[in-house]
Amino acid sequence: MPKLKTHRGAEKRFKKTATGKFKRNRAYKSHLLTGKPSKRTHRLRTSAIVDKTNEKAVQKMLPYL
Fold it and tell me: pTM for the complete prediction?
């Protein structure tokens, strides 16, 4: 069986937590921020956990994480 390749884009975007879940950053925080309330941009700074429906796909992209 050949070695599996890690998806390089996914490796930069996801980190594994101690409990085995995947941590991700929130979207909509890169540009056009003047029209967004500060409350919203403050909330977008926090990280989130990948939904369980997408967890299998992320694990497939990151076989050695």
Answer: 0.84
